[in-house]
């Protein structure tokens, strides 16, 4: 029973992740950040993005997010404006998904908690 349920949740999340990325690369405010020739870095991001959100209470995640985005803040001027645009994509992908409003809310709150870490503050 439990295994069946988690497969279902994983399946829903997979769809959210792929919709989320379609929205990101189509968003003119932030698409430039994802025109990265390092496809492997982006794939890693894709896989780890939601894991990071689900582990947001862990201090290690904050440190990891700081380091992962440091170069973007320092060299490519990643700001709140970009973070907000990413959040909008996330909210839209979640709205369109089969996750419950409560599940969606938890994920968005986790993303918000990582804002300062992502923006290297
Ligand atoms: C809560 C918000 C965010 C989370 C949880 C998150 C998560 C991640 C993760 C897990 C990685 C992979 C790090 C690695 O390869 O080890 C990553 C990399 C990356 N993130 Fe984010 N991210 C967030 C916000 C953003 C925002 C706002 C942008 C830009 C608009 C962004 C752009 C990128 C880019 C371009 C990379 C690849 C960096 C590289 O060149 O290696 N991220 N992110």
Write the layout of secondary structure elements.
Blueprint lengths: L1 H25 L12 H16 L4 H18 L3 H16 L5 H13 L1 H4 L3
The structure holds protoporphyrin IX containing FE.
Protoporphyrin IX containing FE (HEM) binds next to helix 2, helix 3 and helix 4.
Organism: Kordiimonas lipolytica
Protein name: Truncated hemoglobin
InterPro entries: Globin-like_sf, Globin/Proto, Hemoglobin_trunc
Q: What's the architecture in CATH terms? A: Orthogonal Bundle
- What series of H and E elements makes up the topology? HHHHHH
- What CATH calls the topology is Globin-like
* Portion in strands: under 5%
The name of the CATH superfamily reads Globins
Query: Main β-sheet: number of strands, strand sense, barrel status?
Result: none
What is the rounded Rg? 14 Å
Describe this structure in words.
The protein has 121 residues and is mainly alpha-helical. It has a single domain (2-118), classed as Globins (Globin-like), CATH 1.10.490. 76% of the residues lie in helices and 0% in strands. The chain contains 6 helices and no strands. It has helices spanning 2-26, 39-54, 59-76, 80-95, 101-113, 115-118. Helix 1 packs across helix 4. The longest helix has 25 residues, at 2-26. The relative contact order is 0.15. The structure holds protoporphyrin IX containing FE. Protoporphyrin IX containing FE is lined by residues 30, 33-34, 36, 38, 41, 44-45, 48-49, 52-53, 65, 68-69, 72, 78, 82-83, 86, 111, 114, 118. Protoporphyrin IX containing FE binds next to helix 2, helix 3 and helix 4. InterPro entries: Globin-like_sf, Globin/Proto, Hemoglobin_trunc. This is Truncated hemoglobin.
């Amino acid at each position: 029973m439990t295994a069946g349920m988690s497969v279902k949740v994983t399946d829903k999340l997979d769809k959210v992740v792929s919709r989320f990325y379609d929205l990101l690369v189509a968003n003119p405010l932030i698409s430039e950040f994802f025109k990265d020739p390092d496809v492997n870095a982006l794939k890693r991001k894709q896989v780890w993005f939601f894991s990071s959100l689900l582990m947001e209470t862990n201090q290690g995640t904050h440190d990891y997010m700081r380091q992962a985005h440091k170069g973007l803040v320092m060299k490519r001027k990643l700001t709140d404006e970009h973070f907000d645009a990413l959040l909008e994509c996330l909210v839209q992908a979640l709205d369109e998904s089969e996750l419950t409003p409560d599940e969606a809310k938890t994920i968005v709150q986790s993303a918000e908690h990582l804002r300062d870490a992502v923006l290297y503050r």
